[in-house]
Protein backbone atom coordinates (compact mmCIF):
# COMPACT_ATOMS: atom_id res chain seq x y z
CA UNK A 1 0.00 0.00 0.00
CA UNK A 2 1.38 3.39 -0.99
CA UNK A 3 1.28 6.27 1.48
CA UNK A 4 -0.28 9.59 0.38
CA UNK A 5 2.23 11.72 -1.53
CA UNK A 6 4.60 8.83 -2.21
CA UNK A 7 5.53 7.13 -5.48
CA UNK A 8 5.07 3.46 -6.19
CA UNK A 9 6.13 1.25 -9.08
CA UNK A 10 3.88 -1.80 -9.30
CA UNK A 11 4.69 -4.69 -11.62
CA UNK A 12 2.12 -7.39 -12.30
CA UNK A 13 3.49 -10.48 -14.05
CA UNK A 14 2.86 -14.19 -14.49
CA UNK A 15 5.24 -16.88 -15.74
CA UNK A 16 2.55 -19.43 -16.73
CA UNK A 17 4.35 -22.16 -14.83
CA UNK A 18 2.50 -25.41 -14.18
CA UNK A 19 3.88 -28.44 -12.36
CA UNK A 20 2.86 -31.06 -9.82
CA UNK A 21 2.69 -28.47 -7.03
CA UNK A 22 0.41 -25.94 -8.75
CA UNK A 23 -3.35 -25.64 -9.12
CA UNK A 24 -4.22 -26.34 -11.85
CA UNK A 25 -1.64 -29.09 -12.16
CA UNK A 26 0.89 -29.52 -14.92
CA UNK A 27 3.47 -32.10 -15.85
CA UNK A 28 7.23 -32.04 -15.87
CA UNK A 29 8.44 -30.75 -19.27
CA UNK A 30 9.78 -34.21 -20.10
CA UNK A 31 6.43 -35.91 -19.45
CA UNK A 32 3.63 -36.53 -21.90
CA UNK A 33 0.80 -34.03 -21.96
CA UNK A 34 -2.76 -34.94 -21.07
CA UNK A 35 -4.25 -36.84 -24.03
CA UNK A 36 -0.76 -36.91 -25.53
CA UNK A 37 0.31 -39.09 -28.43
CA UNK A 38 3.80 -40.28 -27.50
CA UNK A 39 4.48 -44.01 -27.41
CA UNK A 40 6.97 -44.66 -24.64
CA UNK A 41 9.85 -47.01 -25.34
CA UNK A 42 10.35 -46.35 -29.04
CA UNK A 43 14.06 -45.36 -29.29
CA UNK A 44 13.64 -42.67 -31.92
CA UNK A 45 10.69 -41.12 -30.07
CA UNK A 46 12.57 -41.08 -26.78
CA UNK A 47 15.65 -39.51 -28.39
CA UNK A 48 13.56 -36.86 -30.14
CA UNK A 49 11.83 -36.03 -26.86
CA UNK A 50 15.20 -35.46 -25.19
CA UNK A 51 16.14 -33.02 -27.95
CA UNK A 52 12.73 -31.35 -28.00
CA UNK A 53 12.42 -27.81 -26.67
CA UNK A 54 10.85 -27.58 -23.22
CA UNK A 55 7.11 -27.14 -23.25
CA UNK A 56 4.47 -26.35 -20.66
CA UNK A 57 2.43 -29.54 -20.49
CA UNK A 58 -0.87 -29.11 -18.67
CA UNK A 59 -2.50 -32.10 -17.03
CA UNK A 60 -6.01 -31.13 -18.11
CA UNK A 61 -8.14 -31.09 -21.23
CA UNK A 62 -8.47 -27.41 -22.10
CA UNK A 63 -6.04 -24.92 -23.58
CA UNK A 64 -3.72 -23.20 -21.14
CA UNK A 65 -3.75 -19.63 -22.43
CA UNK A 66 -0.78 -17.51 -21.35
CA UNK A 67 -0.63 -14.13 -19.69
CA UNK A 68 -3.14 -11.96 -17.85
CA UNK A 69 -6.60 -12.25 -19.41
CA UNK A 70 -8.73 -10.23 -16.98
CA UNK A 71 -8.57 -6.56 -15.95
CA UNK A 72 -6.13 -5.40 -13.27
CA UNK A 73 -7.39 -2.45 -11.23
CA UNK A 74 -5.66 0.12 -9.05
CA UNK A 75 -7.82 2.21 -6.74
CA UNK A 76 -7.41 4.75 -4.00
CA UNK A 77 -9.06 4.87 -0.58
CA UNK A 78 -9.15 7.18 2.42
CA UNK A 79 -6.97 6.24 5.39
CA UNK A 80 -10.06 4.65 6.91
CA UNK A 81 -11.74 2.37 4.37
CA UNK A 82 -14.05 -0.62 3.96
CA UNK A 83 -12.09 -3.85 3.50
CA UNK A 84 -14.83 -6.47 3.34
CA UNK A 85 -18.60 -6.95 3.56
CA UNK A 86 -20.27 -10.19 4.64
CA UNK A 87 -24.03 -10.66 4.25
CA UNK A 88 -26.06 -13.66 5.42
CA UNK A 89 -29.76 -13.37 4.47
CA UNK A 90 -32.71 -15.63 5.25
CA UNK A 91 -36.12 -16.05 3.67
CA UNK A 92 -37.89 -13.87 6.24
CA UNK A 93 -35.90 -10.80 5.24
CA UNK A 94 -33.37 -10.89 8.07
CA UNK A 95 -29.84 -10.00 6.99
CA UNK A 96 -26.89 -10.60 9.28
CA UNK A 97 -23.97 -8.41 8.31
CA UNK A 98 -20.35 -7.87 9.29
CA UNK A 99 -18.19 -5.03 7.98
CA UNK A 100 -14.40 -5.22 8.13
CA UNK A 101 -12.64 -1.87 8.05
CA UNK A 102 -9.13 -0.46 8.04
CA UNK A 103 -9.00 2.19 10.73
CA UNK A 104 -11.73 3.45 13.02
CA UNK A 105 -14.92 5.23 12.06
CA UNK A 106 -18.71 5.17 12.16
CA UNK A 107 -20.34 2.46 10.06
CA UNK A 108 -23.81 2.83 8.58
CA UNK A 109 -25.52 0.12 6.53
CA UNK A 110 -28.57 0.74 4.37
CA UNK A 111 -30.46 -1.83 2.31
CA UNK A 112 -31.93 -0.38 -0.88
CA UNK A 113 -34.63 -2.09 -2.91
CA UNK A 114 -34.67 -2.23 -6.70
CA UNK A 115 -36.22 1.26 -6.92
CA UNK A 116 -33.62 2.77 -4.58
CA UNK A 117 -35.89 3.02 -1.54
CA UNK A 118 -34.43 2.29 1.90
CA UNK A 119 -35.79 -1.10 2.98
CA UNK A 120 -33.68 -1.48 6.15
CA UNK A 121 -30.86 0.29 7.95
CA UNK A 122 -28.50 -0.20 10.85
CA UNK A 123 -25.38 1.23 12.48
CA UNK A 124 -22.26 -0.50 13.65
CA UNK A 125 -19.85 -2.96 12.06
CA UNK A 126 -21.90 -6.05 12.97
CA UNK A 127 -25.59 -6.71 13.41
CA UNK A 128 -28.87 -7.85 11.89
CA UNK A 129 -31.35 -5.90 9.77
CA UNK A 130 -34.88 -6.85 8.76
CA UNK A 131 -36.25 -5.97 5.32
CA UNK A 132 -39.89 -4.96 5.21
CA UNK A 133 -42.00 -7.01 2.77
CA UNK A 134 -39.02 -9.07 1.55
CA UNK A 135 -38.77 -10.39 -2.00
CA UNK A 136 -36.72 -13.52 -2.70
CA UNK A 137 -34.05 -14.13 -5.32
CA UNK A 138 -35.45 -16.86 -7.57
CA UNK A 139 -33.73 -18.50 -10.56
CA UNK A 140 -34.96 -17.63 -14.05
CA UNK A 141 -37.76 -17.69 -15.22
CA UNK A 142 -38.61 -16.55 -11.72
CA UNK A 143 -37.62 -13.08 -10.53
CA UNK A 144 -33.97 -12.80 -9.40
CA UNK A 145 -34.72 -9.86 -7.11
CA UNK A 146 -31.63 -7.99 -5.94
CA UNK A 147 -31.20 -5.64 -3.04
CA UNK A 148 -28.18 -3.38 -2.52
CA UNK A 149 -26.32 -3.00 0.76
CA UNK A 150 -24.88 0.52 0.87
CA UNK A 151 -22.11 0.64 3.48
CA UNK A 152 -20.63 3.96 4.58
CA UNK A 153 -17.60 4.39 6.82
CA UNK A 154 -17.04 7.90 8.14
CA UNK A 155 -13.68 8.62 9.76
CA UNK A 156 -11.28 11.47 10.44
CA UNK A 157 -9.95 11.29 6.88
CA UNK A 158 -13.36 11.47 5.21
CA UNK A 159 -15.89 8.87 4.12
CA UNK A 160 -15.65 5.61 2.19
CA UNK A 161 -18.75 4.05 0.63
CA UNK A 162 -19.32 0.71 -1.08
CA UNK A 163 -22.45 -0.84 -2.57
CA UNK A 164 -22.86 -4.63 -2.51
CA UNK A 165 -25.75 -6.26 -4.41
CA UNK A 166 -27.26 -9.35 -2.77
CA UNK A 167 -30.38 -11.49 -2.79
CA UNK A 168 -32.55 -13.25 -0.24
CA UNK A 169 -31.82 -16.88 -1.05
CA UNK A 170 -31.00 -20.08 0.82
CA UNK A 171 -29.31 -23.27 -0.45
CA UNK A 172 -29.12 -26.54 1.49
CA UNK A 173 -29.26 -30.31 1.17
CA UNK A 174 -31.88 -32.32 3.03
CA UNK A 175 -32.02 -36.05 2.50
CA UNK A 176 -31.82 -36.72 -1.23
CA UNK A 177 -32.91 -33.24 -2.30
CA UNK A 178 -31.16 -29.97 -3.05
CA UNK A 179 -33.32 -27.19 -1.62
CA UNK A 180 -33.23 -23.67 -3.03
CA UNK A 181 -35.33 -21.30 -0.94
CA UNK A 182 -36.68 -24.37 0.82
CA UNK A 183 -37.94 -26.01 -2.40
CA UNK A 184 -36.49 -29.07 -4.23
CA UNK A 185 -34.43 -27.70 -7.12
CA UNK A 186 -33.47 -29.52 -10.33
CA UNK A 187 -30.24 -28.46 -12.10
CA UNK A 188 -30.50 -28.04 -15.88
CA UNK A 189 -27.37 -26.78 -17.58
CA UNK A 190 -23.75 -27.28 -18.45
CA UNK A 191 -20.13 -27.32 -17.75
CA UNK A 192 -18.64 -24.33 -19.57
CA UNK A 193 -15.32 -22.74 -20.41
CA UNK A 194 -14.20 -19.16 -20.78
CA UNK A 195 -13.26 -19.58 -24.43
CA UNK A 196 -14.01 -17.99 -27.78
CA UNK A 197 -12.44 -17.49 -31.20
CA UNK A 198 -11.50 -13.86 -30.78
CA UNK A 199 -10.63 -13.46 -27.09
CA UNK A 200 -9.54 -16.93 -26.02
CA UNK A 201 -10.02 -16.78 -22.25
CA UNK A 202 -9.90 -12.99 -22.26
CA UNK A 203 -12.86 -11.25 -20.63
CA UNK A 204 -15.59 -10.70 -23.22
CA UNK A 205 -18.63 -8.95 -21.77
CA UNK A 206 -20.62 -9.20 -24.99
CA UNK A 207 -20.03 -12.95 -25.20
CA UNK A 208 -21.16 -13.36 -21.58
CA UNK A 209 -24.46 -11.67 -22.45
CA UNK A 210 -24.79 -13.89 -25.53
CA UNK A 211 -24.17 -17.04 -23.48
CA UNK A 212 -26.71 -16.09 -20.82
CA UNK A 213 -29.29 -15.36 -23.52
CA UNK A 214 -28.64 -18.81 -24.99
CA UNK A 215 -29.04 -20.37 -21.54
CA UNK A 216 -32.45 -18.68 -21.28
CA UNK A 217 -33.35 -19.82 -24.82
CA UNK A 218 -32.59 -23.42 -23.90
CA UNK A 219 -34.69 -23.32 -20.73
CA UNK A 220 -31.58 -24.11 -18.66
CA UNK A 221 -30.98 -22.69 -15.20
CA UNK A 222 -27.39 -23.37 -14.19
CA UNK A 223 -23.75 -24.04 -15.01
CA UNK A 224 -20.54 -25.06 -13.26
CA UNK A 225 -17.48 -22.81 -13.52
CA UNK A 226 -15.39 -25.65 -14.89
CA UNK A 227 -12.54 -25.73 -14.00
CA UNK A 228 -11.64 -22.44 -12.36
CA UNK A 229 -13.40 -19.40 -10.93
CA UNK A 230 -14.78 -17.27 -13.76
CA UNK A 231 -14.49 -13.52 -14.14
CA UNK A 232 -16.44 -11.62 -11.48
CA UNK A 233 -18.40 -9.84 -14.19
CA UNK A 234 -20.04 -13.16 -15.12
CA UNK A 235 -21.27 -13.71 -11.56
CA UNK A 236 -22.70 -10.18 -11.48
CA UNK A 237 -24.56 -10.94 -14.71
CA UNK A 238 -25.89 -14.25 -13.36
CA UNK A 239 -27.07 -12.51 -10.18
CA UNK A 240 -29.14 -10.18 -12.36
CA UNK A 241 -30.33 -12.84 -14.80
CA UNK A 242 -31.16 -15.60 -12.32
CA UNK A 243 -28.61 -18.22 -13.44
CA UNK A 244 -27.48 -20.67 -10.74
CA UNK A 245 -23.74 -21.39 -10.41
CA UNK A 246 -21.71 -24.25 -8.96
CA UNK A 247 -18.49 -22.39 -8.16
CA UNK A 248 -15.31 -24.43 -8.73
CA UNK A 249 -11.71 -23.94 -7.64
CA UNK A 250 -8.66 -24.28 -9.91
CA UNK A 251 -7.98 -27.81 -8.63
CA UNK A 252 -7.99 -29.74 -11.88
CA UNK A 253 -5.33 -32.23 -12.95
CA UNK A 254 -4.73 -33.99 -9.62
CA UNK A 255 -4.82 -37.27 -11.47
CA UNK A 256 -1.85 -39.13 -12.89
CA UNK A 257 -3.77 -42.10 -14.24
CA UNK A 258 -2.45 -44.46 -11.59
CA UNK A 259 1.18 -43.62 -12.43
CA UNK A 260 1.89 -41.74 -9.22
CA UNK A 261 0.34 -40.48 -6.01
CA UNK A 262 -1.01 -36.97 -6.73
CA UNK A 263 -1.43 -36.35 -3.01
CA UNK A 264 2.31 -36.51 -2.42
CA UNK A 265 2.92 -33.41 -4.54
CA UNK A 266 2.43 -30.75 -1.88
CA UNK A 267 -0.63 -28.89 -3.18
CA UNK A 268 -2.56 -29.08 0.09
CA UNK A 269 -1.55 -25.75 1.64
CA UNK A 270 -2.05 -23.91 -1.64
CA UNK A 271 -5.41 -25.63 -2.09
CA UNK A 272 -6.57 -24.34 1.29
CA UNK A 273 -5.72 -20.79 0.26
CA UNK A 274 -7.48 -21.23 -3.10
CA UNK A 275 -10.68 -22.26 -1.30
CA UNK A 276 -10.45 -19.35 1.13
CA UNK A 277 -9.88 -16.88 -1.71
CA UNK A 278 -12.79 -18.26 -3.75
CA UNK A 279 -15.27 -18.09 -0.88
CA UNK A 280 -14.08 -14.66 0.23
CA UNK A 281 -14.57 -13.33 -3.31
CA UNK A 282 -17.93 -14.92 -4.15
CA UNK A 283 -19.67 -15.36 -0.78
CA UNK A 284 -22.27 -12.60 -1.35
CA UNK A 285 -23.43 -13.75 -4.80
CA UNK A 286 -26.95 -15.21 -4.67
CA UNK A 287 -26.25 -17.05 -7.93
CA UNK A 288 -23.60 -19.21 -6.19
CA UNK A 289 -25.41 -22.13 -4.53
CA UNK A 290 -22.65 -24.72 -4.11
CA UNK A 291 -18.84 -24.90 -3.91
CA UNK A 292 -16.86 -27.45 -5.92
CA UNK A 293 -13.50 -28.28 -4.35
CA UNK A 294 -12.06 -29.60 -7.61
CA UNK A 295 -12.54 -31.61 -10.78
CA UNK A 296 -11.72 -35.24 -11.52
CA UNK A 297 -8.96 -36.04 -9.03
CA UNK A 298 -7.68 -39.57 -8.57
CA UNK A 299 -10.03 -41.06 -5.98
CA UNK A 300 -9.55 -44.69 -7.01
CA UNK A 301 -5.87 -45.66 -6.87
CA UNK A 302 -5.10 -44.01 -3.51
CA UNK A 303 -8.53 -44.01 -1.81
CA UNK A 304 -7.39 -43.37 1.76
CA UNK A 305 -4.86 -40.71 0.74
CA UNK A 306 -7.58 -39.07 -1.33
CA UNK A 307 -10.01 -38.99 1.59
CA UNK A 308 -7.33 -37.62 3.92
CA UNK A 309 -6.62 -34.85 1.40
CA UNK A 310 -10.16 -33.87 0.40
CA UNK A 311 -12.20 -34.25 3.57
CA UNK A 312 -10.34 -31.53 5.52
CA UNK A 313 -10.90 -29.24 2.51
CA UNK A 314 -14.61 -30.08 2.62
CA UNK A 315 -14.72 -29.11 6.29
CA UNK A 316 -12.70 -25.96 5.58
CA UNK A 317 -15.17 -24.80 2.93
CA UNK A 318 -18.05 -25.21 5.35
CA UNK A 319 -16.20 -23.22 8.03
CA UNK A 320 -15.21 -20.44 5.65
CA UNK A 321 -18.62 -19.84 4.08
CA UNK A 322 -20.82 -17.65 6.30
CA UNK A 323 -23.88 -18.89 4.36
CA UNK A 324 -22.77 -22.54 4.73
CA UNK A 325 -23.66 -23.59 1.19
CA UNK A 326 -23.42 -27.25 0.17
CA UNK A 327 -19.95 -28.48 -0.82
CA UNK A 328 -19.07 -31.06 -3.45
CA UNK A 329 -16.18 -32.63 -5.35
CA UNK A 330 -16.61 -33.61 -8.99
CA UNK A 331 -15.34 -37.13 -9.66
CA UNK A 332 -14.33 -38.72 -12.95
CA UNK A 333 -15.25 -42.11 -14.39
CA UNK A 334 -13.57 -44.58 -12.08
CA UNK A 335 -14.09 -47.69 -10.02
CA UNK A 336 -16.67 -46.01 -7.82
CA UNK A 337 -16.69 -48.93 -5.39
CA UNK A 338 -13.14 -47.99 -4.33
CA UNK A 339 -13.91 -44.26 -4.03
CA UNK A 340 -14.55 -43.46 -0.35
CA UNK A 341 -14.50 -39.66 -0.80
CA UNK A 342 -17.29 -38.74 -3.24
CA UNK A 343 -19.97 -40.37 -1.11
CA UNK A 344 -19.06 -38.07 1.82
CA UNK A 345 -19.80 -34.86 -0.09
CA UNK A 346 -23.13 -33.03 0.31
CA UNK A 347 -24.03 -33.77 -3.32
CA UNK A 348 -22.59 -36.61 -5.40
CA UNK A 349 -21.38 -34.96 -8.63
CA UNK A 350 -20.39 -37.40 -11.36
CA UNK A 351 -18.61 -36.97 -14.68
CA UNK A 352 -19.65 -40.00 -16.69
CA UNK A 353 -19.21 -40.89 -20.35
CA UNK A 354 -21.11 -44.13 -20.86
CA UNK A 355 -21.65 -44.19 -24.61
CA UNK A 356 -18.50 -42.25 -25.44
CA UNK A 357 -15.20 -43.08 -23.72
CA UNK A 358 -16.84 -46.23 -22.34
CA UNK A 359 -19.11 -48.41 -24.48
CA UNK A 360 -18.80 -45.86 -27.26
CA UNK A 361 -21.25 -46.25 -30.12
CA UNK A 362 -23.52 -48.68 -28.25
CA UNK A 363 -26.19 -46.69 -26.42
CA UNK A 364 -28.05 -49.81 -25.27
CA UNK A 365 -24.95 -51.05 -23.46
CA UNK A 366 -24.21 -47.52 -22.24
CA UNK A 367 -27.63 -47.20 -20.60
CA UNK A 368 -27.24 -50.63 -19.04
CA UNK A 369 -23.84 -49.72 -17.56
CA UNK A 370 -25.10 -46.36 -16.30
CA UNK A 371 -28.07 -48.03 -14.61
CA UNK A 372 -25.77 -50.47 -12.84
CA UNK A 373 -23.82 -47.56 -11.40
CA UNK A 374 -26.99 -45.69 -10.46
CA UNK A 375 -28.03 -48.74 -8.43
CA UNK A 376 -24.84 -48.30 -6.41
CA UNK A 377 -25.45 -44.60 -5.77
CA UNK A 378 -29.05 -45.25 -4.78
CA UNK A 379 -27.68 -47.05 -1.72
CA UNK A 380 -25.62 -44.03 -0.58
CA UNK A 381 -28.67 -41.96 0.48
CA UNK A 382 -27.34 -38.79 -1.18
CA UNK A 383 -28.60 -36.49 -3.95
CA UNK A 384 -26.83 -37.34 -7.22
CA UNK A 385 -26.31 -35.28 -10.36
CA UNK A 386 -24.31 -35.47 -13.57
CA UNK A 387 -21.85 -32.61 -13.87
CA UNK A 388 -20.43 -33.93 -17.15
CA UNK A 389 -21.77 -36.30 -19.76
CA UNK A 390 -21.70 -35.95 -23.49
CA UNK A 391 -20.53 -36.97 -26.92
CA UNK A 392 -18.43 -35.14 -29.50
CA UNK A 393 -20.32 -33.91 -32.56
CA UNK A 394 -18.57 -32.22 -35.44
CA UNK A 395 -21.02 -29.63 -36.77
CA UNK A 396 -22.30 -30.63 -40.19
CA UNK A 397 -21.70 -34.37 -39.92
CA UNK A 398 -25.08 -36.10 -40.34
CA UNK A 399 -25.81 -39.81 -40.59
CA UNK A 400 -29.03 -41.75 -41.17
CA UNK A 401 -27.75 -44.41 -38.76
CA UNK A 402 -26.28 -42.27 -35.98
CA UNK A 403 -22.60 -42.90 -35.47
CA UNK A 404 -20.05 -41.34 -33.17
CA UNK A 405 -19.10 -37.73 -34.00
CA UNK A 406 -22.37 -37.11 -35.86
CA UNK A 407 -24.93 -34.58 -34.67
CA UNK A 408 -27.56 -37.33 -34.62
CA UNK A 409 -25.50 -39.50 -32.25
CA UNK A 410 -25.00 -36.61 -29.83
CA UNK A 411 -28.74 -35.89 -29.88
CA UNK A 412 -29.69 -39.53 -29.28
CA UNK A 413 -27.02 -39.86 -26.58
CA UNK A 414 -28.68 -37.18 -24.45
CA UNK A 415 -32.16 -38.52 -25.13
CA UNK A 416 -31.23 -42.04 -24.00
CA UNK A 417 -29.18 -41.11 -20.93
CA UNK A 418 -31.72 -38.55 -19.74
CA UNK A 419 -34.47 -41.14 -19.99
CA UNK A 420 -32.58 -43.27 -17.46
CA UNK A 421 -31.94 -40.29 -15.19
CA UNK A 422 -35.65 -39.48 -15.03
CA UNK A 423 -36.39 -42.86 -13.44
CA UNK A 424 -34.34 -42.08 -10.33
CA UNK A 425 -35.96 -39.96 -7.58
CA UNK A 426 -32.57 -39.15 -5.99
CA UNK A 427 -31.21 -37.74 -9.29
CA UNK A 428 -31.32 -33.95 -8.94
CA UNK A 429 -29.68 -32.51 -12.02
CA UNK A 430 -28.11 -32.77 -15.44
CA UNK A 431 -25.23 -30.55 -16.53
CA UNK A 432 -24.03 -31.62 -19.95
CA UNK A 433 -20.51 -31.38 -21.31
CA UNK A 434 -20.23 -28.90 -22.91
CA UNK A 435 -22.06 -25.66 -23.55
CA UNK A 436 -19.88 -24.88 -26.59
CA UNK A 437 -16.92 -26.36 -28.43
CA UNK A 438 -13.59 -25.21 -27.01
CA UNK A 439 -9.91 -25.37 -27.84
CA UNK A 440 -7.62 -27.94 -26.16
CA UNK A 441 -4.05 -29.13 -26.35
CA UNK A 442 -3.19 -30.91 -29.59
CA UNK A 443 -3.58 -34.67 -29.61
CA UNK A 444 -5.07 -37.58 -31.57
CA UNK A 445 -8.29 -37.52 -29.50
CA UNK A 446 -9.07 -33.89 -30.35
CA UNK A 447 -9.86 -32.55 -33.83
CA UNK A 448 -9.52 -28.79 -33.54
CA UNK A 449 -10.43 -28.98 -29.87
CA UNK A 450 -13.20 -30.60 -27.88
CA UNK A 451 -16.38 -30.91 -29.98
CA UNK A 452 -18.80 -31.90 -27.20
CA UNK A 453 -20.49 -28.50 -27.22
CA UNK A 454 -24.16 -28.31 -28.14
CA UNK A 455 -23.10 -25.01 -29.70
CA UNK A 456 -20.10 -24.54 -31.94
CA UNK A 457 -17.32 -22.28 -30.72
CA UNK A 458 -19.05 -19.33 -32.42
CA UNK A 459 -22.36 -20.27 -30.67
CA UNK A 460 -24.20 -21.85 -33.60
CA UNK A 461 -26.60 -24.53 -32.27
CA UNK A 462 -26.16 -28.19 -33.17
CA UNK A 463 -29.03 -30.65 -33.42
CA UNK A 464 -28.76 -31.61 -29.72
CA UNK A 465 -29.36 -28.01 -28.65
CA UNK A 466 -32.87 -28.15 -30.08
CA UNK A 467 -33.58 -31.48 -28.41
CA UNK A 468 -32.41 -30.22 -25.03
CA UNK A 469 -34.40 -27.02 -25.50
CA UNK A 470 -37.59 -29.04 -25.89
CA UNK A 471 -36.72 -31.12 -22.84
CA UNK A 472 -35.60 -28.35 -20.49
CA UNK A 473 -38.47 -26.00 -21.26
CA UNK A 474 -40.74 -28.83 -20.08
CA UNK A 475 -38.92 -29.35 -16.77
CA UNK A 476 -39.70 -26.87 -13.96
CA UNK A 477 -36.97 -25.53 -11.68
CA UNK A 478 -38.82 -26.78 -8.60
CA UNK A 479 -40.68 -29.97 -7.78
CA UNK A 480 -39.48 -32.07 -10.73
CA UNK A 481 -38.16 -34.69 -8.31
UniProtKB/TrEMBL annotation:
EC number: 3.2.1.31
Every Glycoside hydrolase family 2 catalytic domain range: 172-475
Gene Ontology terms for molecular function: beta-glucuronidase activity; carbohydrate binding
InterPro entries reported in the protein's UniProt record: Beta-gal/glucu_dom_sf, Galactose-bd-like_sf, GH, Glyco_hydro_2, Glyco_hydro_2_AS, Glyco_hydro_2_cat, Glyco_hydro_2_CS, Ig-like_fold
Keyword Hydrolase: yes
Keyword set, alphabetical order: Glycosidase, Hydrolase
Keyword Hydrolase: yes
Domain of life where this protein originates: Bacteria
Residue span(s) of domain Glycoside hydrolase family 2 immunoglobulin-like beta-sandwich: 93-169
Any one biological process term the GO annotation gives: carbohydrate metabolic process
PANTHER family: BETA-GLUCURONIDASE
Family: Belongs to the glycosyl hydrolase 2 family.
Protein name: Beta-glucuronidase
Naturally occurring in which organism (per UniProt): Enterocloster clostridioformis
Amino acid sequence: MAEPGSSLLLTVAVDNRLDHSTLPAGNDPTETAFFGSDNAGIPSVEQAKREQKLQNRPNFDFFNYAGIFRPVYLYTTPRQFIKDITLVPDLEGNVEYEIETEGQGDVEVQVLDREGNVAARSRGSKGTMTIREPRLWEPWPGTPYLYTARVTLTGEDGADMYEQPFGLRTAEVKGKQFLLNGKPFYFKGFGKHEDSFFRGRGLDLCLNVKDVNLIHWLGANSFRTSHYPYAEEMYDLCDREGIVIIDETTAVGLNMGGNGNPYACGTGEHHEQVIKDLIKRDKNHPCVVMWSLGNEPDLEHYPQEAYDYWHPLYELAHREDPQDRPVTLVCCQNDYTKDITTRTMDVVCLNRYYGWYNLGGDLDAACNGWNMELDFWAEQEKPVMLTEYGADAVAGIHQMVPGMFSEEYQDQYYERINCENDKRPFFIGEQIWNFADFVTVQGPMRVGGNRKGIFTRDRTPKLAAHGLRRRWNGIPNFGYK
